[in-house]
Write a structure and sequence with these properties.
alpha+beta; three-stranded antiparallel beta sheet
């Protein structure tokens, strides 16, 4: 027989589904808001990109390859994300499998809390060297 749960323990997280919809904002710029002392993301596009946790989101290389193909016509990019209730001057970089796991874990925790917030991935394209044509 299992012991009763501790009265202050958190309920277990629900098992995540294999498809994970992420709202990705891209091709925009972070600029100062004209009427406040905060930063805002402007002139970009936003898409919901569904990724499969077992394949596409299993490693950072698979995840970035999928986003590169979906959003940037196979051009490389850097991935950062905005935490809920944080300003755009404190973006979190995603460069390793552990970073990706932490981002997805945070996403799951927010969903299980039923809070009206979310993690927003922000891919930034790397500079593509221009080739001079003679």
């Amino acid at each position: 027989m299992d012991p009763p749960p501790h009265p202050h323990s958190l309920p277990p997280l629900p098992l995540p589904t294999s498809k994970l919809p992420l709202m990705c904002s891209y091709n925009g710029h972070i600029t100062p808001c004209p009427h406040s002392n905060t930063l805002c993301y402007s002139v970009g596009e936003t898409r919901i990109v569904a990724v499969d946790r077992r394949t596409t989101a299993s490693t950072i290389s698979a995840f970035t390859h999928h986003l590169s193909h979906t959003l940037y016509n196979n051009h490389p990019f850097h991935l950062k994300y905005q935490l809920p209730n944080e300003d755009l001057d404190s973006l979190v970089s995603v460069t390793t499998d552990e970073d990706l796991f932490n981002m997805l874990d945070g996403h799951d925790r927010i969903l299980s809390s039923h809070a009206p917030s979310r993690i927003v991935p922000l891919p930034y394209p790397t500079r593509i060297p221009r080739v001079a044509v003679a």
